[in-house]
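hiii, so i know i said id send this last week but things got crazy w the move. better late than never?? heres the sequnce for the chain we talked about at the cafe, plus the structure i predicted for it. fair warning i was half asleep when i ran it
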Amino acid sequence: MEKISKPNLVDLLRLSDRQRWFSPRIRFASVRSKPELIGDLRRLYTDVKRGGLVHFVPRLALPAHVPKIAYSPKLRTFLLNGKPIDVPKISRARPVFSIRYAKYTLCF
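okay and structure toks below
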């Protein structure tokens, strides 16, 4: 995990926070050091190097909606479920919302 740059780690944690992959949340503030971020990730994952990729193997059973995560040092990109994904672009995208002027019923 040390070969992954801090901005890439922060983008991965930002995406995981947006998708609610981990509970409790992992803080990803820019004031935290890279070793602290890696330490938080190592509580959930072990990093295994296979076939030129760094695979994040879960230590415990994670929810089904959490994808398999790998990192390609050669391409400098993350692979989610085996597919390359532009994590910085997705994690920094503005949230989509709309305002509707209609009646809604909330059930508790």
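btw The radius of gyration is 16 Å. thought thatd interest u
miss u guys!!
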